[in-house]
Amino acid sequence: MRVSVVGKDVVSCVYQHSTSPDGAVRHHLYPIRTEAAELTEDLRATCLRAMSALVLDLAVIDLVEGPDGPVIIEVNSGISSWERLEGTEHDRTESGITRRIADHLSGLLTSDHA
């Protein structure tokens, strides 16, 4: 599962599946297939706690299913490859992920963070 977070907003929450015959995650001839993942309140809270602990404003969080639910395996600072999700059923924003990122960064520049 991959959860993308901007500020305190989850902008996408998807399962990613390899379409490569050998199961490779990165294969230029076989793109990743995305599928909607349920964003529970517990999952949202877990992702936001991870971001808070790492003092991040933007992140992509990778999780796997463990015996007691999703387990974070990686937190990537920044958001990569959101363009393929923009405007799809996986985009959880009102006006697009790009706009949400720009608005968040603009807010950081005009607040006490600057």
Give the name of the CATH superfamily: ATP-grasp fold, B domain
Along the chain, the helix and strand elements come as: EEEHEEH
Q: Examine the secondary-structure arrangement and name the CATH architecture.
A: 2-Layer Sandwich
Our count of helices gives: 2
Strand content: 25-35%
Using the coordinates shown, work out and report the CATH topology. D-amino Acid Aminotransferase, Chain A, domain 1
Question: Which consecutive residue ranges, at least 5 long each, have pLDDT under 50?
Answer: none
What is the arithmetic mean of pLDDT? 88
Strands of the widest sheet, in order across it, are 3-2-1-4-5
Q: Give the end-to-end Cα distance, rounded to a whole number of Å.
A: 33 Å
Residue share in helices? 10-25%
What about the largest sheet? 5 strands, antiparallel
Description:
It is a single chain. The protein has helices at residues 41-54, 97-110; strands at residues 2-6, 9-17, 33-36, 58-66, 69-77. The protein has a five-stranded antiparallel β-sheet with strand order 3-2-1-4-5. The chain has a single domain (2-110), classed as 2-Layer Sandwich (D-amino Acid Aminotransferase, Chain A, domain 1), CATH 3.30.470.20. Strand 1 (2-6) and strand 2 form a beta hairpin. The chain has 114 residues and is α+β, with helices and mostly antiparallel strands. It has two helices and five strands. The termini are far apart.
